[in-house]
Amino acid sequence: MTGIYVHIPFCVQKCLYCDFPSYGGISSYQEDYVAALCREIGASSYAGGEADTLYFGGGTPSLLTAEQVGRIMAAVRATFSLGADAEITLEANPDSMDKEYAKELAALGINRVSLGVQSFCDETLRFLRRIHTAEEAVRAVEDVYAAGIGNISVDLIYGLPGQSVAALRCDMETLLSLPITHSSLYSLIVEAHTPLERLVAAGKVTLPSVEEVEAAGTLIREAMAASGFVHYEISAYCRPGYASRHNIKYWTYEPYIGFGASAHSFDGKTRFTNESNIPVYIKQAGKTSVVTEREEIDTERGEEDYCFLALRMRDGIDGNRFRDLFGRTVEAAFGPVLPELRAKGFLEETARGYKLTKQGLLYGNYVFGRFLR
Ligand code: SF4
Predict the structure, then answer these.
(1) N or C: which terminus of the chain has fewer CB atoms within 10 Å of its end residue's CB?
(2) Residues 173, 178, 180, CA angle at the centre, nearest 5°?
(3) Could you say which of 230, 250, 270 is where a domain stops?
(4) Is the CB–ligand 1 distance for residue 14 below 6 Å?
(5) CB 259 within 8 A of CB 38
(6) 364 and 221, same structural domain?
(7) Which of 215, 234, 250 is the last residue before a domain boundary?
(8) Under a CB-based contact definition with an 8 Å cutoff, are residues 259 and 6 in contact?
(9) Are residues 85 and 226 in the same domain?
């Protein structure tokens, strides 16, 4: 079954590190954008298909009014067969979440909220150019929970410039004191063309060493495990049974359909990217195709993508699924790479295929790179 992604590109302002397709100061487009989204969804060539996940990502989807979220959900339900037990996630920022809004979302059928918190330290939040405080973040989680949405994820960033071990411990203690079911814990990445990249290049911001980031990662893994969370993907932890069903589709080579400006889709054979220019998207959506890039995935590329993504997950590569998808075994496809990575202690054989070892988790990018031919 497919997953549906809806991209909401609006933010109040850009954060220091962000390279997502999102923009501050364009809220005047919001209403026209929602209408365009509904048109694009209604005109989908996949209309009539079955979906079991719906994910509002961004950007900041919680900047939409509940009425706008409801209109988009109605368009999805009118076009697709969305299962009664579908996972329906909305990404939110603490500054645009309160009890009333959370109740409205719950009434619409949103059953999972993913809050972009990033840190529970006010000084760090200011540095990252986040517009909320730590107190607002805690309150947002409590408001969502009080509204009856029990499936709550919180995103945090670690490996931040100047972040002490004490500050990270404080972040983890606050995180684990909250009624959450899921957390994505990312180490800071300096993306190209971001203000953070310019500050680092100018020597105004000093990044932590590789050893410090590794130590932070170890602290996080131990804290999450001690609290009963399952480390099911490189950056993602969940209470048993609360893995993100939508994100798992990305990591296991399942199809998904993306709507909205810059959204991506994958039908199992071809990847599609939508128009990124918001006014152009608004003008064209539902009237003519908004797809601007189309990439056929040949078998070799598919094999690489599958392994690259599957190794992010705790269970790793599924040998049977690989053979079903590509018509040969993973051993036939990657020959000497597998024994080489096993000999280095980065990869281990499992009953169903291969997965990263603890050591391999630390050198994930190197291992993934070995699967690119
Ligand atoms: S709120 Fe999220 S999407 Fe928006 S600028 Fe910040 S990190 Fe990027």
Answers:
(1) C
(2) 115
(3) 250
(4) yes
(5) no
(6) no
(7) 250
(8) yes
(9) yes
In a domain, 76, yes or no: yes
d(C-alpha 229, C-alpha 168), whole Å? 18
Reduced to 3 states (helix: H, G, I; strand: E, B; else coil), residue 346 is: coil
The protein residue whose alpha carbon is closest to atom 6 in ligand 1 is 15
Cα 20 to averaged position of ligand 1 atoms, centre (Å): 7
22 lines ligand 1 (CB under 6 A): yes
In a domain, 269, yes or no: no
Domain of residue 148, CATH code: 3.20.20.70
- 327 and 178 fall within a common domain: no
Strand extents, DSSP E, 93-210: 112-118, 151-158, 182-187
Identify the domain containing residue 338 by its residue range: 317-370
Mutate to test the pocket of ligand 1, among 13, 60, 118, 186 (most ligand atoms within 8 A of CB): 60
Q: What are the phi and psi torsion angles at 366 (to 5°)? A: -65, -45
Q: pLDDT tens string for the chain (373 positions)?
A: 899 999 999 999 999 999 999 999 999 999 999 999 999 999 999 999 999 999 999 999 999 999 999 999 999 999 999 999 999 999 999 999 999 999 999 999 999 999 999 999 999 999 999 999 999 999 999 999 999 999 999 999 999 999 999 999 999 999 999 999 999 999 999 999 999 999 999 999 999 999 999 999 999 999 999 999 999 999 999 999 999 999 999 999 999 999 999 999 999 999 999 999 999 999 999 999 999 999 999 999 999 999 999 999 999 999 999 999 999 999 999 989 999 999 999 999 999 999 999 889 888 889 999 998 8
221 shares its domain with 338? no
One domain for residues 340 and 221: no
